[in-house]
Amino acid sequence: MTRKAAFFAFLLNCCVYFAHSSLTPNTFLEDEDRLRLLSLFQLNPPFAASDVVKIHYSLIGSLILKNNDLNSVLPSKDKADLCTLCDGILTNVEQLNVENAYFASSIVKLIGCKTPNSPKLISVLNAYLKEGSTVAELHRAANSLLNIGQSLDSPKLSKILQTALKNDESLLSTGLAFQLASNLKGAENLQPFVEKISDVVVQADEIDGRLLQFEGGLGITANIILGIYSFATAANKPIGLTNDQSIKFTNYFLSRKTVQTPKSAAELLQVLKLLVDNKYHIPVCVSRYQSPAISHSNPVISVRVANVMGKSLGRDLKVTANSELTGKKNFQSVQGDSTLFALKIDNKARRGAYNISIDVTPSKADPRLIGNTNAVVKVIMMTEISIENVEIGVVDSDQVTSSKLTELKYPSSITQVLEADYQQKLILKFVLRDKIAGDTMTAHQAFVLFVNEESKQEIVFVAEPDTSKPEIVYKFDLNLNTRSKDFSHISGRYQISLIIGDFVVSNPFVWKLGSVKLTFPASREATQAEKAPWMKTHYSMKPEIKHMFRQQEKRPPAIVSDTFSVLVCVPFLILLGLWAKLGINLKNIPICLSVVIFHVGLGSIFALFACFWLKLNMFTTIKYLLGLGLITFLSGHSLLSRLASKRAEQK
């Protein structure tokens, strides 16, 4: 694809939003989605006990995509290996937990292995069906028993499940409880859970008026919807979801079809499979087929009508379109594809964007079909344009008439080089005409491009239409004196091109009109770097950053600090004087090791404080002080104890 074609293809998609405005799902599981999801479910032997979770979800997803064809999913040798692995897990009851039991027994059921139903295994699983177990444990244990062919005690399990759900009413537990309750027998055992459907549905969050989901994402939403539908079917009760709510949940699930893990993909496919066939709701997906653009050379609107899995709805359908473009007409089914329908429109249709309202009616009424009325798709009626009455020339800025304009016909260019200075202006006139309708029209993109032949600098201007008259005329008037700044005042030759495009135009074009030599005042000539901005260096040295630090505050005179030091020493000198006057009595000091250690330690602490004052920081001082302080404390305690004992003996 050329750059021009790519640009206008992008333009087409950006200008109009081609999404459905109704709730009807506008997408489904397509072939490329199936292939991508299948790649997530690849199983690579040898298999280990730690892989049972992935194997479980991979088998579920693969069997849904392969229509339960086990042979195409799992070779015979791999099946035998999996049966051996699961049998080993289920028979090793001493190390068995409810999670492994659930996934291993599910695999056994999915691939048809011989069912291991030893009394020890059944006893271990039944041990989980008691008061105090969580909803998840009850769900796993009960389903494990069902997987190995055992029956459930419905009255007992119903009471236990109600108690567990009261203790944990989270969304995930509620969804699992619905799924487990759907396996119970007896209306009296199901009735306590019926009213909880409406309680959980109101907790759904709406997104953009088109989606509904539960907090927690795809896994929780899928579990709840699976639980609600399976439980309502088992209890033979109303589903508790309106048609619009069901469609919004469907839109959410289809928006998550790009999931990246086997677990999420399997949960998505389980709920989509449910929405293909159940007794309550079957969503109808209506989407446009291929490009939204149609034209008089290809006046066919094609749509796909399918279920969420992208397959036929399995019944005769009448697909009716109703819009300004089509009137009320029926689509015709396309031979060889039961999901594809086509409608040929009238060649007199005018250009523009149209909403097509589509109704899908089965030959035999089916109240389960939802989203099958007022589905909206948008299409673009394209047209071809011609450009006429093209005139280009240079006139003086104060000149009223345009006698010097040169006529051009697409796609030819002017042969001579136009010359203009800052006292003149460049004029371009043209008309765009719809070839089909015959009237003049405007385009969303009408640009005049100037490219400097030396520096390749591009300057783009918008051509404005004059819509005040019946015939729309574009006039581009460039006053070089007032617009010289746009050219960076760079004189030289410029290539002139006209760019025309619109989302309804099937033949957009870029027309090279010719060259013009522009002259700006000499005093305003630009440097070479200005002429070619791409020549400027972006890696030159940056100016030095000079930081001014705050000036240090002026210190007080030395006599002040000396006086303070003397004053600090005065109490010590007074102490020495008093000791000399009163006399020091050292007779009671015992001669022992603790005395020496205590006084040395005390002196060391004073010396440490002196070092702290002179050069040490606080953290270093604390580190040394901890050691000296501990030694001094212990030796001092020993000294005081000895003195106290000696004094008691003297008494």
Give a nutshell description of this structure.
With 651 residues, this protein is of the alpha+beta class. The protein is built from 19 helices and 23 strands. 39% of the residues lie in helices and 21% in strands.
Give structural notes:
It is a multi-pass membrane protein. By secondary structure, this protein is α+β, with helices and mostly antiparallel strands. The chain folds into five domains: 47-151, no CATH class; 153-277; 284-381, Immunoglobulin-like (Sandwich); 385-535, Immunoglobulin-like, CATH 2.60.40; 579-650. It has 19 helices and 23 strands. The strands form six sheets. It has a five-stranded mixed beta sheet with strand order 5-13-11-7-8, with no helix packed on it. The chain is flat, with a radius of gyration of 44 Å. Residues 1-21 have low confidence and may be disordered.
* Count of DSSP strands: 23
Strand order of the largest sheet: 5-13-11-7-8
How many structural units, i.e. domains? Answer: 5
C-alpha-based Rg, rounded: 44 Å
